[in-house]
Amino acid sequence: MSIKEKILEGREDIEKFFIKIIGREIFVPELDVFSSRCGCVGIMITVRGLFTDDVEIFQKQLVKKLEDLAKSFDINADWIFIRTLPGSDDVINIGVRELCNLCKEEYSYKKPRPDLISLKF
Amino acid sequence: MFSIPHPGDFESLKVIVNEIKKIKKYDKRARKERFEIYLGFSEFIGTGRATLHKPNFEELEEQIRYAKKNNLRMEVVINASCLGGTHLTANGISYINWIFNQLKNIGVECVALSDPYLVDLAKNNDLDVNVSCIALVDCLDKALFWDEKEVYAITLDSSINRHFDIIQEIKDNVNCKLKILVNEACLYKCPMRTQHFNFFSHANAQNIPALDDYYYNKCINLRIKNKELIIKSPFIRPEDLAHYEKMIDIFKISGRSHPIGWIKRVLLAYLKRKWDGNLMELLDCPRELQHFFYLDNKILNSAIKKWKTCNKRCSGCNFCKDLAEKALKVKN
Ligand SMILES: [Zn+2]
């Protein structure tokens, strides 16, 4: 499968996964595979319609799903997190990251920043 | 005393408290040190920085109790640079009075403010006031204006961090404490400072769906294009705190919107007054550039001597430019 097909499939797959597991419409407008200047590599997923409660309930399945997705891109899922809208329960991003040493030092916490919640760290 | 950035959620406060406890166990100097913690409170009035968590009064009360139990002063930052005129309306006045009264009731000792009218209201509500760096106090006349209001402290505009003559003159003539930002590292005399603070003030308080932070992106680009700007930016190295000790009462660490692991690193470096390696890893404003530049802290060892006596007429001096060539490298 080409990289392009893999990304296209990944986005669709995650969207379907949420709809199936949560039982209502969740919109995944974008899935990005990235590399950072620091040496981190990862996947960033934008979500709409997902809330922290949903994630809490299905955390185990979600982590497993994201680990598999990362593996398909040859990325180690060192850190899996969600980003919420400040002051709300709306999840707006889900991130999977193979951390560089500096970012490991900065982000390896249950709640490294008030708008980030680690599901795996 | 050290002033520590607190992102605002209880989890982060616990990490900070644990870190202080830990270091007090093995570091003699830290054992004698006193600490205060500051967090943004962006309800209606807004603050001058991004706020990633907005605690309500109950949560804040709980955190204050916890902080006091651990011997920490807690300061609530309400330092919007622009209030859009709302504070001078009848509704605005009673709302702000209500907020200050609530803060007082839940045990807040001190608020950081930048508007003189708000300072008067806070004093009326028996709150101590720290004049925020957003008030841009960069000379004696401004400092005297605030000192006459019997404020607890003035946080100096970081643009004068390396103007030792001005700081000394302020010190000699005010009664309040002086605070200095050690690692904010904004551009020296930043031409966009007011606009950037105004943008944050409104974006925070009113959830404006801004497309992009123009000022931040501009600021980063300027430094990539001209790395001398990084050296000229008025940060204070952990090793150089001693040069400020006689004039400054409180060293304030900047960076409440960064991850807690970063805050921990910076706090430890300044407490130990020592940092080996890339100084960019301690600087707040251009934090993303820690991945791009390596600023060799050792090479800056004696720069403070020059900065202390420098007349700040950069066109006739290449000191910072030469230093940038030597100390600052693009990471590979
Ligand atoms: Zn990284």
TrEMBL record, chain A:
UniProt cross-references to InterPro entries, sorted A to Z: Uncharacterised_MJ1658
Pfam family, one: DUF5402
Domain of life: Archaea
Upper lineage: Archaea, Methanobacteriati, Methanobacteriota, Methanomada group, Methanococci
UniProt-recorded name of the protein: Uncharacterized protein
UniProtKB/TrEMBL annotation, chain B:
InterPro entries per UniProt: RNA/ubiquinone_mod_enzymes
Domain of life of the native organism: Archaea
Listed PANTHER family: 23S RRNA 5-HYDROXYCYTIDINE C2501 SYNTHASE, PEPTIDASE U32 FAMILY
Protein name: Peptidase U32
Organism: Methanocaldococcus vulcanius (strain ATCC 700851 / DSM 12094 / M7) (Methanococcus vulcanius)
